[in-house]
Amino acid sequence: MAMALMTVSHPAGKPTLEEAARQLGVDVAKVDSAYGVVVIDPEQGLYAVQVEASAAASPDAEGKFAGPWSNPNIASFGPIE
């Protein structure tokens, strides 16, 4: 299943998966619980979640676009020395 990285705003601290899903307007079953909620900028209350790509391409409940964003794998560029 293809996943998309989305951002949510929660100034009162780290949101639950349910709060993130509600903000994005998707069912919580579409949010990747293994990825969880990852802090991007705690001072601005920005967090990332992964959701099923089929549910990700819509605006959040407030009508603001919140992704999907690129989420490339992080790996070394060459042999480990």
Please provide a written account of the structure.
With 81 residues, this protein is an alpha+beta fold. The protein has a domain of 54 residues. It is 15% helix and 22% strand. It contains 2 helices and 3 strands, in the order βαββα. Strands 1-3-2 form a 3-stranded antiparallel beta sheet. Strand 2 and strand 3 form a beta hairpin. The longest helix has 8 residues. The termini are far apart. The model has no long low-confidence stretch (mean pLDDT 83).
The neighbouring-strand order within the major sheet is: 1-3-2
- Low-confidence segments: none
Strand-residue proportion:
15-25%
- So how many helices? 2
Count of DSSP strands: 3
Q: Cα-atom Rg, whole angstroms? A: 14 Å
Overall mean pLDDT stands at 83
Q: Profile the largest sheet.
A: 3 strands, antiparallel
What is the molecular shape?
globular
Order of helices and strands: EHEEH
What's the arrangement of secondary structure elements?
Layout: E1 3-9, H1 17-24, E2 38-41, E3 46-52, H2 53-56
Antiparallel strand pairs: 1-3, 2-3
